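Practice problem: predict the structure.
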Amino acid sequence: MLYGTIVMAILYIILKYILNWIRYFNSLDSRLGQSTWRWSYDYPVVGERDVSDLDDKNFVRLRRKRNGIISLMYSVVLIMFILFMSLLSKFLIFFLY
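Answer:
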């Protein structure tokens, strides 16, 4: 249980670091918006004009970097959820037996 708690704390620090990177990328261009949990679309959406790599190369590359960081954030959140369920089960087994 102690090692699981230490790993959860380390993952939490990594998650905070990733969230700061997302906020940093959001501050570089106002077109990205301020959402932390949402990917920006990189494909044509009906009714919306998407910026292609030919139109604005720097923005598209920034958006793709931000989307990669958001994918990393979701994977860390998933690992933290699985680890939390494991810790919770160990905690309940420890106190109920």
